[in-house]
Amino acid sequence: MTGQTQVNRALFDEVMVPNYAPANIIPVKGAGSRVWDQQGREYIDFAGGIAVSSLGHCHPALVSALKQQADKLWHLSNVMTNEPALRLASALVNATFADKVYFANSGAEANEAAFKLARRYALEKFGAHKDQIISFHKSFHGRTFFTVTVGGQAAYSDGFGPKPGAVLHGEFNNLDSVKALISDNTCAVVLEPIQGEGGIIPATAEFLQGVRDLCNQHNALLIMDEVQTGVGRTGKLYAYMHYGVTPDILTTAKSLGGGFPIGAMLTTDDIASHLKVGTHGSTYGGNPLACAVAEAVLETVNQPEVMAQVLSNEQLCRQQLAAINEKYQVFSEIRGKGMLLGAILNEQYKGRSREFFLAAADQGLMALVAGPDVVRFAPSLVITPEDITAGMQRFEQAVKQVVNA
Q1: Phi and psi dihedrals of 193, rounded to 5?
Q2: Is residue 45 within 8 Å of 366, Cβ to Cβ?
Q3: At the topology level of CATH, where does 73-301 sit?
Q4: Residue 318, Cβ neighbours under 10 Å: how many?
Q5: Would you say 243 and 203 are in contact if contact means Cβ atoms under 8 Å apart?
Q6: In angstroms, rounded to a whole number, what is the distance separating the alpha carbons of residues 219 and 122?
Q7: Catalytic, out of 45, 46, 131, 225
Q8: How far apart, in Å, do the first and last CA atoms of the chain sit?
């Protein structure tokens, strides 16, 4: 790039593949839950980089971890191991059900590893017939061809030729639909404890326990995709901890790196033993820079006072959304847990979530959608009550803008 290049939104259309349609604003600086664009305009961040920026922008602990590691070692590949990866894996094992960890670069890669492991485990333990994966409509597990096929949204997987086979889809929170699909040919059932992209839909306790029981009966593995719900997002380190239902394999990413790309698959000794040397890998997985940052994230987030703050922040958000709704009558309910909330549009406003999202940006608030009927909020876990209140004031103006349009 030469010094003369104008770095603006028009340049995106000129040089970038058009699979995204980003907003016109280009943020250039962030601190905590505030972001500033090229023109110096300030935004309050309720989007968190799609549930990624678990500690906001430029958190001192993360900046320090990155700078310290940057002066030591950036990359080795998996021909050798490294200290940050070993420390992070130990911390994850100590904090969860798991005995073993596999590192990748993203949630999709963690899920890819989980699905491959489930297939390999079933093949070696029970035979080639046991290859079916049961997932759910409206689920989202990534954008690789395997993960997007397992995901329950045909709009993301259609149009790329023949799909990987032996993938079935049930209805989320409907145990009968799982009973109708599961058999001795099922190698795994995969689900999000709270469906994210599908509309912020929490699993019921009965459903989750029922799926666990069915997996046990049919020698199938239960895979929980906690890419969006993990690392404190729901007020527990992982959402499965709210339910008392333990998965066989868990995937985590997004908040784990606080903005630095990293993903991980967690599992037990017995299951992990089936990914023998050479069966799977990643050039960058377990990268020292990523693991050093994620180690600082985990250490900072996995504290009782932070978990308590996530739940008190949730209550504050719910109270203020209820007050907005009393005035404008646009939501039918608020769904979700902790700092992953969805404002569900009522019949009158169905299909218009993008209008609320755009109006929020006009008012200086970064928000998200989860499908056409849900406005999604996934701010920093440690966002201050003051920033929540200021952000909700801006959101109220956005709601007013849409209602009066």
Answers
A1: -55, -35
A2: yes
A3: Aspartate Aminotransferase; domain 2 (3.40.640)
A4: 14
A5: yes
A6: 9
A7: 225
A8: 42
- Residues with Cβ within 8 Å of 403's Cβ and at least 6 positions away in sequence, in order, are 328, 330
**Total residue count of the chain as it appears in this document:** 405
Condensed to tens digits (0 to 9), the pLDDT of residues 200-235 reads 999 999 999 999 999 999 999 999 999 999 999 999
- Measured CA to CA, the distance from residue 54 to residue 380 in angstroms comes to 5
- The pLDDT tens digits of the residues spanning 292-335 come to 999 999 999 999 999 999 999 999 999 999 999 999 999 999 99
| pTM reported for the whole predicted model | 0.95
Of 45, 254, 373, 387, which is the active-site residue?
Answer: 254
Distance CA 281, CA 275 (A): 10
Query: Domain residue spans in the chain?
Result: 9-59+304-403, 73-301
Q: Which residue has the tokens 């890419």?
A: 227
Annotated binding site for N(2)-acetyl-L-ornithine: 143, 282
Q: Which residues are annotated as a binding site?
A: 107-108, 140, 143, 225-228, 282-283
> Domain 9-59+304-403 - what CATH class?
alpha beta
- Give the span between the Cα atoms of 9 and 366, in whole angstroms: 17
Cα–Cα distance measured from residue 382 to residue 374, given in angstroms and rounded to the nearest whole number? 23
Catalytic residue at 225? yes
Residue 362 has which token pair?
């006009």
Residues 103, 115, 140, 207: which is the catalytic one? 140
d(CA 128, CA 297): 40
Binding-site members for pyridoxal 5'-phosphate are 107-108, 140, 225-228, 283
pLDDT averaged over every residue in the chain: 96
CA contacts within 13 A on the Cβ side of 259: 20
